[in-house]
Amino acid sequence: MKEKDKGAKESEASTREERETAPELGAGGFIKNQQTGEFFLVENEARWSIPVGHKKKADRTLRETFFREMKEEIGLESEEIIWLESFGTVFVQKDENSPRKLFEIYYIKVGAQTAQKLKYSEKGKQLSVWLRREKIETMPNLDKLAKAALRLYREKYVSSKIIVGGGYDKERVLSGGENRQF
Predict the structure, then answer these.
(1) Assigned CATH for 3-181
(2) How far apart are CA 47 and CA 128, in angstroms?
(3) Which tens digits make up the pLDDT trace of 39-83?
């Protein structure tokens, strides 16, 4: 076999292997009603999650994926978003036999009118709900992506008092890196 042909076959095999092991890409939104403080969750396969979608070839970026999917899945238009911030990316995997998925998570605030119109339904069945963060934290059937979004939100926006030596130390805001494995 010629060296040129051998190199091309190795390169092709390497590219195929990378495609097979590369994570699926997607984007999702942790959406907050600015007036009520409630967050939007959707039900998927008997588990509660944040609205998400997978990247299509036409999407140039995960941000484009996010806007397209929010419009398709729940009817959220980009101009209705009051606040948009990326929490970064998270890897999720249902189990060791499932493919790894990489999601860009966005934290979004919407107004009360927009919140009222957001809906997720499948086959005529309403599958979405607005809940307070404290209630969400007690839900046993949150999927890994919703747990990751909740954790990122708490780390960035929820302060806690640290107990040191039996008394309170100073108040601090937890913070973390951009890329996490959950």
Answers:
(1) 3.90.79.10
(2) 11
(3) 999 998 889 999 999 999 999 999 999 999 999 999 999 999 999
Query: What's the rounded Cα separation, in Å, for the pair 174 and 106?
Result: 18
Task: Give Cα separations from 71 to 23, 50, 124 (angstroms).
Answer: 24, 14, 18
- Strand boundaries in the chain, DSSP class E: 24-33, 39-44, 47-49, 52-54, 81-92, 101-110, 121-122, 125-126, 128-131, 159-164, 167-173, 179-181
Enumerate the domain spans of the chain.
3-181
pTM of the model: 0.74
Residue carrying the six token digits 């963060």: 133
CB atoms within 10 A of CB 9: 11
- Tokens encoding 67: 């806007």
